[in-house]
Structures are given as C-alpha cells and as structure tokens.
Design a protein that fits this description.
This protein is of the alpha/beta class and 466 residues long. It is 39% helix and 24% strand.
C-alpha cells in the first residue's frame, strides 16, 4: 500500500517539479538576456558620449596616407603600438611582415589631343603596382572597350593603342559592393588582358559611385608571360568626356606620363594588442582591420576607421571594467591593399599556435551606420549568433546572416566563425581608394555606433563562446 502511495505521489508531483525546474531555467535565461541588454546599452551610450575612438581616428589621419612600405606607414604603426600601450592593454606587440614597396612618384599627366592640339587634361592616378611610362610618356590612339569579351572581339584593332576600359559600376544595384565587384576586374586585370593583344597602355573609368572627377586608385596585377604596360584610372566625369569625344572623333590621341616605381620588399609589422580572458584565456576572439591605405586621401574610412574601432573595442572593455571570459585580441593587419601579407602572416601564427581562435571579426567597410554582421560558419553557429539580435539591436544592428567576412581574417583557417561587420554601404564607394577618403567624411555618431556594435558582438562571443 505504501509503495503504491509513493508511486502515486511521484506521478502527481513530477509534473509540478518539472514545471518548477523549467520555470527556474526560463527565469534564469531571461535574467541573463536582460543583463546582456543592460551591458549592451551601457557600451553604446558610453561610446556615443565619450567619442574617444573618433578623436583617435583624427590623430591617425593627421599622419597621412599609409601605403605599405612607406614612411607614413611606419609612423602609423608606432603610433598605434604606443596608443595601445597607453590604454593599458595586457599585451602589445609587433608581428614582423615583409611587404611590397610601390611609390607613385610625381603627379601623373594625362591629356587627349586632336591633331596635336590639346583638347583637355584629364584627372588621373596611376594604379597601384603599375610600371612607369618612359620619361616622356606614351602617346597613342585610344580604343574604348566595355568588357573583356569585347576586347577579344576587337583584338585586331588593339595593337599599338591605349585601351580605355569604360564599364561603370552598375548604379542599379542596391548593394554597392556588388556593383563594385561588377566593374573592378577592369582595374585588376585590365593591363594583363590588353597586353595580350599588343596594347601599349591602359586607362580605366574610376570604380566609384560618385559623379565627380576625383580618380580612384587600387591594385592592379601583371603576369610574367606578358609585357608590363602602364595602367591608370581617370575621373568619372573625364571618362564621360573621353567617351563622348571618341564618338565624335575615333582618331583622338591620348598622352600618359607616370613615373611610379616598385622597390624591394621592406620590413613592416602587424600591430597586436590584447586583454587576457579571465576564464578561457587560450580561447581567442580577434577583432581588426587593415592598417595600410592607398596613398591618396588619408584612409579614414578605408580602413583607418575599422582599425580604430577595433582598438576602441578593447578600450571599452577596460573603460567599463568588463572582464572578458575569453581573450580579446585586436590585430591591425598591414598590406591588405596590395598583397594581404599581414593577414597571411597572422594566419600562419594562428595555425601554429596552441591557442584556439573561436571567432574573428573584420571591420573593413567604412564607418557608416551599422546594419549587420555577415557570418562565415556552419548553420548551427550562425543560428546561435542570430539569437543575440535582441541584444545587438541596442547598437543598431538589424540582422545577422551567412556571408563573407574579410580579406585578412579569412586567412585564419582554424577559427570557428569569421564575421564581417557591415555598415550601410551607399556612400562607401564615393570615397573608396580616393582623395575623398578623409577624416571630414567620417560622422562621429556613425563611427561610434559602429565601435559599439562590434564591442557588443565581441562581448557576447567572449561570454557565450561558440
């Protein structure tokens, strides 16, 4: 009778016990989320009110452009190392990286002529890595080309001419990075393709969304099996002008003069600083951007902003006395623009280390209003990170979805997840790789919201793991 009574009591009380346990777990989880939201709110308000990172970006931009191998690049590297040390990070060090050293030289000259009479000087920039022209420049008829397929079709007309690649960004695309991708092959591979058919030089329409006349630089490539011909970008409006003039007079002559040069590889460094985790110090969350920039403007959006936001992530932890469970490491990668050697060297370090890289975030899309995070990982991990949206929303993050991360962090092959911070992209290609990319183009609230968004994501990765 007692045994039967005992079993009956268990049958009656078990659902109640399970309800109490589940309720306790639910309340505990709710409290945890509430705590996270509170921390995210504090991080965001602190970043917006203090504006420390924005002031540091101004200091960095005052050094000037930071092309790999340049004197300014080394000045910036030492500045960043000193800044991290001043801020009291647990460890700060330089990782040696050998980088290419290309110099633009004197201002380029480009003009179009009709019967030796100059019609117009064009705004022009040598593309990064280009060879120079002879001292007196090159002079030849111009052939306008919209695609590599068209180039192949007109192969017999190309020899001895300067090829004008004139395919603009598709302004109909809502994603400007996709638009950039639809046009940038002309810049990267144009000299290779034109050289196949005997061209003596290449000019391209600047890869930009802005209807101005500021030319945009960027890397271009050669192959050893073909002649290396000079390559340059001309302003958007000048590209329109040249195209219209060629319709009126296909026999126009273009003269191009550049004295850029490639020197021997030189010693440079990644700048690394970290705050050690209090529980899982061997598990690493990386946050960073690329510290080099092109040699026009001062690389404010590309990628000074992402680098300074990454420094501010660690500083916000210290400012708010947040002790991370996992080690937070800021890496400023050198040489992304014309070689990615900083990312490659750090990837080697990550592969050979006993540390476990659980996640790496790259900020290399400008300092505009934050909207989301791309995540390169398995679906379970992406789903887990997506559940943090109610917390990330405190810093204006609207979505988390599968997508690419960034050139440098992609070299960390053993990380559980690679993330790309995504701000609004509508104005980024206006400034990208050009003299437009200056500190004055960065809005303090957009910049600090970005710093806060990345900090909240790093905080959650540190607390929750993957």
């Amino acid at each position: 009778m007692l045994k039967i009574f005992g079993m009956e009591m268990i049958r009656i009380l078990l659902p109640l016990l399970l309800f109490i346990i589940s309720t306790k777990i639910s309340f505990s989880q709710t409290d945890k989320i509430s705590d996270y939201i509170s921390v995210a709110d504090t991080i965001t308000k602190t970043a917006l009110r203090d504006r420390k990172g924005y002031d540091w970006l101004k200091e960095l931009c005052e050094i000037g452009p930071r092309l790999s191998g340049s004197e300014n690049s080394m000045k910036a590297i030492l500045w960043a190392k000193n800044k991290m040390t001043e801020l009291g990070f647990d460890s700060v060090w330089l990782q040696p990286v050998m980088v290419p050293h290309w110099e633009r030289g004197n201002k380029e000259f480009c003009a179009i002529y009709n019967d030796k009479i100059m019609i117009k000087k064009l705004e022009v920039l040598a593309l990064g890595g280009s060879v120079s022209t002879p001292e007196n420049g090159i002079e030849a008829n111009v052939i306008e080309i919209k695609s590599f397929d068209e180039l192949k079709q007109k192969a017999s007309e190309v020899k001895g001419k300067i090829v004008f690649f004139n395919r603009p960004i598709d302004q109909g695309m809502t994603n400007t990075f996709a638009g950039y991708g639809s046009a940038v092959d002309q810049r990267v591979y144009g000299a290779i393709e034109a050289a196949k058919y005997g061209a003596i030089g290449v000019v391209i329409r600047s890869v930009t969304t802005k209807f101005d006349n500021v030319p945009h630089a960027g890397v271009m490539l050669y192959v050893d099996s073909l002649p290396r011909i000079p390559a340059a970008a001309i302003g958007y409006l000048d590209s329109d002008f040249l195209s219209e003039q060629l319709k009126l007079n296909p026999g126009l002559v273009l003269k191009l003069r550049m004295n850029c040069r490639t020197l021997e590889d030189t010693q440079s460094f990644n700048v690394i600083g970290e705050i050690r985790g209090k529980e899982f110090s061997e598990e690493i969350v990386v946050v960073g951007g690329h510290f080099d920039s092109w040699d026009v403007g001062c690389g404010a959006h590309d990628d000074g902003a992402g680098c300074i936001q990454s420094i501010e992530v660690l500083d916000l932890f210290k400012r708010l006395n947040i002790k991370p469970k996992r080690t937070i490491r800021c890496v400023l990668f050198i040489n992304e623009e014309n070689g990615s050697r900083g990312g490659i060297e750090y990837g080697k370090l990550a592969a050979s280390s006993s540390e476990k890289h659980i996640a790496a975030i790259e900020a290399d899309r400008g300092a505009f209003t934050p909207v989301g995070f791309n995540v390169d990982s398995d679906s379970i991990t992406i789903n887990k990170i997506s559940t943090w949206l109610p917390i990330l929303e405190k810093a204006s993050i609207e979505w988390v979805k599968k997508g690419g991360s960034g050139v440098d962090v992609s070299k960390i092959k053993n990380a559980k997840a690679l993330l790309g911070f995504v701000p609004d992209d509508q104005r980024y290609m206006d400034v990208h790789h050009s003299a437009n990319d200056v500190f004055e183009e960065v809005h303090p609230r957009e910049f600090e919201l970005g710093a806060a968004a990345i900090t909240v994501m790093v905080y959650l990765l540190s607390e929750e793991g993957l």
